[in-house]
Model the fold of this input.
Amino acid sequence: MFRMFDLSPGCAFLVGGGEMGALIRAHDWSRAPFGAPHDWPQPLQTLVSVMLGAKQPMFIAWGAEHHMLYNDAYAEILGGKHPGALGAPLLEVWSEIRRDLLPLVEQTYAGRPVHMEDITLITERHGYREEAHFAFSYTPVRNENGEVSGFFCPCIETTRQVLAERRLTEDTARQRRLFECAPGFITILKGPEHVFEFANLAYSRLVGERDLLGKTVREVFPELAGDNFFERLDQVYRTGQRYIAHHKPIRLQTNPASPPRDHFLDFIYEPVTTGAGQVTGIFIEGYDVTETHLAQEAQRASELKFRTLAEAMPNQVWTAAANGQLDWFNDRVYAYSAAAEGELDGESWSQLVHPDDRPSVAQRWAAAVATGSDYETEFRLRRADGSYRWHLVRAVAILAEDGQVQRWIGTNTDIHDQKMAAQNLRELNDSLEMRVEARTAERDRVWRNSRDLLAIVDSDGLFRAVNPAWTEILGYRPDEMKGRSFLEFVWPEDVEPTRRELEAAVNRCDLSDFENRYRHQDGTPRWISWHTSVESELVYAYGRHISAEKEQAEALQHTEELLRQAQKMEALGQLTGGIAHDFNNLLAGIIGSLELIQTRLNQGRTEPIERYTRNAMSSAQRAAALTHRLLAFARRQPLAPKSLDANRLLGGMRDLLRGTIGPLHRLDLIAADALWPILCDPNQLESAILNLALNARDAMPEGGSLQVQTANARCGAENGVSSLPAGDYVTITVRDSGTGMPAETLERACEPFFTTKSQGQGTGLGLSMVYGFAQQSGGHLELRSQAGEGTIATVYLPRHSGALAEEPQDTLTEVPRAQGDETVLLVEDDPIIRNLITEVLQGLGYHTLAASDGPSGLHILQTHPCIDLLVTDIGLPGLDGRQLAEYGLALHLKLKVLFITGYAKDATSASGFMKPGMEMMTKPFAVAALANKIRGMMAVSAALEDPKNS
Ligand code: ADP
Ligand code: MG
Done:
């Protein structure tokens, strides 16, 4: 039965209590072990009254079965279990969590209260299931006996807090997950000791694998003590002020195996505060900027280096931003423009550029900036003094890694002086070119108009170029000659000497005064005298046509020859006069002696014959020697140098000299001992000495002394004759005591045709001949004289190292005789000479055959096979000596021939037909000379016949 407001006495505690109050009052408690409400023990009544009066959800569990009593608020918690739960046992009502509850219930019944912070229940309070959280406590309630009869449980719903807390936790976790992957390092420190609560991956990477969480920063980073990190944290914690660091250096040992590394960090210490502003920790976030820092450092360093370099450079240096805006200038720019330090910018600098150059400079610079290509130009820059100077301006773009222009570095180099110099040089060059052109034209003119041969010959001897003079002189056109060898044009006989001379000239590199003949187109020769020079493999040849000169020289030589001849004849004429007397004396001596011999023979007296014969012989021999010399003197002979002994030659001239100077003068011949041999033409030397003697005689009309002396002379630098090369010479000195010569005469004495003598007396050719001969023989003529002091003429002739030429000794007194059976055929038309020679030959022991003309001589040759020697005159009637000799040689292979002739002409032409085994003698000759000659010829033939005899 349910009775509303039926409040029996003792049930006043059940007043109110909302729905639950009503339900409790209406409940049938008869089945409850603790009876009806008015029977309930006092504690229960009191508790129920409290419970029903409370807004807070509460329930009471009472009795051994823990029957539940609860209020409206708790009814909401029970959800669907209400209202059936009223008076029902607790463990049945919450059967689903009975296992959890039981120990708590038992503990409470054992007298120990239970407190639960959080219990999670699924409720359907609002028509749907939802999670609810509660905090509650079980407070045991004792009876008067002190036994626990039940317990009282007030509940506090914590669902909102729990959910809020959970959300917070989830938020934090999510945040930390985010932190975990953040690129910067993040760590969260808690409390005043800065205990690590969180650290992300980046942080671990930065500091190395360290055991952080739960430890203080001081424990984790002992190496940072003293680096002010901890103190900063303390400060932030204390003050609540954040701290921000840039590029803070830090040395961290990330790995015990490797040395500590320096890092640079950007970071923030952000205090973590409660809502009330209480600091509870520090949030740290930051970045490792080591690489950036180092890069910046490097950049700074390189910048510094660049600046230092740029300042040190002699040039002006500037930099510009990528957009071309000039932003830095070195001191040179400031010094040059006298701008105040740091005052210049792109705008003010561009004002320094010469106004005329400004537009093109701006345009070029803009183009370079647009394309990033190198910039180079020249323009004038205004100097502090207002003058403009030319500068070479160069700029290069500094590219970043991505190829973009980062900045520009430019230099201005003062090229004013060079530019001016170059300009001057150009002007100079232009004028030089003109000059060269003029010179070239001039040279071309010379080339074209030269009357001499000009040619360029290459190293192969081929004509590269010839001038028009070639056509004129040699008849060839230049194009006919070009490319041909010059040797093709040389006169055939001159090719070899030319080639030899050129080879020799290679060493000297040039050739001068070389003469050879070229063939004219008409086949006749032309004499050319050459000068050449060699330059870069080319021979530049200059040739002078000298045929005319040559002809003139030849003509002159011919004339001179004639003159010399005339002079000889003149000398001969003088000689003849001089010696006629002597010769007559000699003849007188011979004739007289012969007459006396005849007279004595008629008288039958023979004893004085011997003496007369000797006298006659003596006179005849002297006469023969005299004529011989005269003939030799008159003979026309080319220079035939022979090695000879000047003493002997002089000795042979004694009579001639004697006869030449006449009896008024004293003659001394002084021969040096061990005189060196000389090499010269003996006839010429005799002429020379004779000429000097004649001059001496002329200078001593009243008589005087003539001395001829030989000597060895060693010519050196000090004691020589200036015109002679140093070396050994033989001197022949002719000294007279005559009039001497005044200086003017002495100076000109050697000139041809210079004479002080009257017409018919002198030719003026004597000394010139002596001089010419001495020069030609490699020697010299020296004249020393003063008026009234006599004259000394010295002929120098070079010493000869070769052996002396053999000269037959025609003064031997021991005449060699025939040896054995030797037959001589003598052919001579003059009967006296023929008989004379026959007698001489027979006297010497030769078998002798004689003929008076050519044909009879031939006949004897044909009929007498045993003839060894033919002695024949050249000029013979019928058949001359030469022809006879030819026949004789044809008949007798080993025949020797000795020509004897009295004609100079024959002697001169003899060299044309003389053969081995032939000899020549000029008449007159001494018997001894004849005997010697024949003996010599026989000995040669004997040696040839029988080698054992030699
Ligand atoms: P030439 O005897 O025909 O006059 P030379 O050539 O021999 O010609 O001599 C030239 C000149 O030199 C002579 O005329 C003479 O004046 C002078 N002369 C030469 N030799 C002597 C000398 N021994 N003493 C003086 N004068 C001399
Ligand atoms: Mg003379």
The longest helix spans residues 547-603.
